[in-house]
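Troubleshooting: if your tokenizer reports a length mismatch, compare your output against this known-good record of 73 residues.
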Amino acid sequence: MATQFTFRECFTEFMGLLTFVYFTNFALILVTNDKLYFTDLALITSLSYALITLIGDAHSKVQYNPAITLSLL
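Known-good structure output:
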């Protein structure tokens, strides 16, 4: 059964992944410049993913896995 995506779901997934990539890459830059430890990188990555999951689930029930999204399309 095909699922129809709305603009809200696509926009929420796009902004969530953009936020996740931004926070993770920014933390990785700080790790390579010896401003943070690797454990801080893991903590920032997991907390940012938890944040976008909570926000995305409240708005449009999206999943943040591009493979699943493409398979549903």
